[in-house]
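Board notes (copied after class):
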Amino acid sequence: MPEPQSAETAAPSAPGPRAETDGADPAGTAPAPGGAGAVRPVRFQVELPPGLELPNANQRLHHLQKARLVRALREAAFLAARAVNAPTLQRAHVFYTVHPDTARRRRDPGNWAPAAKAAIDGLVDAGVLPDDNSTRLLGPDPRLGHPVRGTQLVLTVTDLTRVPAPYLNAFDPTRQLAQDGPR
């Protein structure tokens, strides 16, 4: 009779392209030193193609021109999420990283919030999240990446579905403040 395989010797199942589990197995858990399981959130990235025009908060665009940009970003995010086989999540945290075209000047990555909003709407369209309201989505939080040829937007999505409520404070400090009450 063959011996049962342990987690170390079992054949790993791939979590899908661009999925990261911080060293955990694809199920999202890793053995803790004491023998109890520890939940590690699954992360994956959705990379939009470089060269897309990204609307930013400093632009004053005609509403039809802005709608065209938003539609293109939303569709690109939809296709990119499908391309990486992004899983369906109930709660998530999203960082968006803007990789500017050049590094010649200082940048404020928060100015690309309109582009991130359109891309997250594309994730909702792709079925990654049921909605992008505050009960389902934490963020999006901006980051500035290294320059690339053509501007690029990358979404890093962390699954918060299996994270126990007490540990969500590590992802959202306002939760702890709300529990403590005003001072």
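Comment from the instructor: Helices lie at 63-83, 113-125, 173-180. DSSP finds three helices and seven strands in the chain.
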